[in-house]
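Hey, can you fold this one?
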Amino acid sequence: MTEQLKELPKALCSLYGQLPTIHEDGRANYGKYATLPGILSILLPALRSNGLAVVQTFEEGEERPILVTSLLHVSGERIESRLPLITDTSRNPMHSVAGACTYYRRYALLAILGIAPGIVDDDAGAADLDPQPAAKPAPVPAAAKPKLQQQGNSAKAIVLSAMAKSATKVINKVADEEQAKATRTKLTAYKNTGELSEAEHDHLLKLLTEREKLIAK
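Sure. Predicted structure:
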């Protein structure tokens, strides 16, 4: 961060007056969230028009990679933040790092700008003094509902099947009671945080219990 910031704060104030609402356009087990592409599609035009840019890179830390987020202004002023990436060591390393990068990039980007998803745009939309009510979505015809339900069930079955195959490989590597206990603790934690649904947790727990019986023999 530069010692004295003058132009960058002015540009941020201007940005806040122009920035539309960032919507939570993604959905996960724990609820809705703003995706990285969704955030960038809103931010980049507003940043550019105010002489601002955001750059996110990585540095090698002592124990884990560090995400470096830099907010730059055409005047040469800048703000930087550094955030160590915490990854899930029980997953495929590449998938774990990739997921952590996307997750932390979203939050670091919002934090350095001082914004959050869902804040209603009162200023940029003030010109619309007589807004029209939002159109209601067209109802789904009754004949189409069974087909949509069938498609949803098929997609869910595919996901659960892939999850079961992946979980089987992981659980089959459990070699002793200590590993089994650690795995059981992780499953409970994932369930409590919403990363696993009740059905997913029960299914994985059943696989682990069967593995424990094999170990005990």
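Helices lie at 7-18, 36-49, 93-113, 145-171, 177-192, 198-216. Let me know if you want another pass with a different chain boundary.
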